[in-house]
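New to this. Please check this protein:
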Amino acid sequence: MNVPNFLSLLRIILVPVIIIFLIQESYKNALITFAIAGLTDVFDGIIARAFKSQTKIGAFIDPLADKLLVVSSFIALSILGLIPAWLTVIVITRDLIITGGILILSLMSVSFEMKPAVVSKITTVFQVSTILLTLLYYSIDPGISYKWILLICWATAIFTVASGAVYITRGINYINRSS
């Protein structure tokens, strides 16, 4: 167990803590815990690259921890009525499509590269920003209108759909090239 893998595991452990805080309507604690979880993501990558301590298990648990954190937060926030449920459906559907595509390509023995698209990185920024701004909005009075939360929700939806379309197109291209 190296430090980056420990930080990824810590991020996974923090997911239920965040959800419990949300259920208890302790939005400030949820915000702080979500921010800490986000920092573990930043630091595990920096440490893994700096000390060349990337591992096969780390390559698996880091993105798993990220998905658990984001998807669980979206589900909880939408169930609590703090963000629109349609956005959560879009976020989860995209992830299911990507996972299903990877499964299909693997079952078809199609070789493919797991390189994140630029739009996917932008999507992640918007998804995390949606969670952070929503938690900020409900934990303290930031002096902004909820309309700004809805605006970022729409931007997140647009980038999430665009990202999903990019991965669908990539998958189709991989299949066509293998034929």
Q: What stands out?
A: The longest helix spans residues 146-178. The chain has a mean pLDDT of 95.
